[in-house]
Amino acid sequence: MTTSAQHDVVASATTLLFVPGDRPDRFTKAHKSGADVIIIDLEDAVAVENKSLALDAVVSALTEPHDSVPGGRLTALVRIDSNLSSLHLAALRDIAAVKNNGLLGVMVPKAESAEQLTAAVNALPRGLAIVPLIESARGLVNINDIAQVQGVTRLGFGAVDFGLDVDATHERVTDYARVQIVVSSRAAGLGAPVDSPSLSISDLAIVEAEATRARQFGFSGKLCIHPAQVTAVNSSFMPSAEEIAWAEEIVGLDGGASQHNGLMVDKPVVDRAHRILSRRGE
């Protein structure tokens, strides 16, 4: 896979599924979950005493053949540990040097400055995906600079860590951050960002509702923490039958401003209808 293709896979992913780095037995299962991208996690999902073991597992998984997955190669984004960033980035650089490796790029947790992201970009070969996670007040305040760093693919949101950092639990606080992330992504010319994962695993109705809400906010993907969430998230980011029917009616109207069911229809409305229809096959 070329680096440009790696970038595109991450930029267009709707579902990005975390798997603990010290559980290589789950890597293949995650790959077969239907998620667009898997994220091998070297940060929160791995205990301190297992960090070295997890890094070894990542190197092995992304450089050796895997007969049990399509194409014979496991592909993944890797979330590094911010406390071990130099070590982890060096290991990812070594992986990227191996022919036919499966490294898609790096997810940078607790992204808080353009300098931090520039260092990550410069540590890796050009073209790999770079996904900063906004998880703190400082990260949100500096989000425009972070989004403008050359090489950043798209932004992600870590709502739990953000709420902890600002000591807030009300959804309006995290929604404020969501708006900033969406607007800054658009202003920087990035693809739409990836929303924080739902903490619900067994109640998929909650997962669907949160994913639908994220789409309404302007996100185009959502992180997942369990394979059971993947189908629910994917379906929630697809337009509903009602939306498709509305869009088909709108694009079928005559050009110029007009009325439809008592509402004015002009170019922005038609453009939105075309956008909805373009998502049907994704």
Measured distance between first and last alpha carbons = 21 Å
Which CATH architecture of the largest domain is right?
A: Alpha-Beta Barrel
Q: Which stretches are poorly predicted, pLDDT < 50 over at least 5 residues?
A: none
Q: Order of strands in the sheet with the most strands?
A: 6-5-4-3-2-1-8-7
- The helix content is 40-55%
Largest sheet: 8 strands, parallel
Overall 3D form:
globular
Average pLDDT works out at 90
* Overall CATH class of the largest domain: Alpha Beta
The number of helical elements comes to 13
Total strands: the figure is 10
CATH topology of the largest domain: TIM Barrel
Tally of distinct domains: 2
Strand content: 5-15%
Structural class computed from helices and strand pairing: alpha/beta
H/E topology pattern: HEHEHEHEHEHHEHHEHEHHEEH
Describe what this molecule looks like in 3D.
The protein folds into 2 domains: 236 residues, Phosphoenolpyruvate-binding domains (TIM Barrel, Alpha-Beta Barrel); 36 residues, no CATH class. Helices cover 46% and strands 15% of the residues. The chain is built from 13 helices and 10 strands. The strands form 2 sheets. Strands 6-5-4-3-2-1-8-7 form an 8-stranded parallel sheet. Strands 9-10 form a two-stranded antiparallel ribbon. Helix 3 links the parallel strand 2 and strand 3.
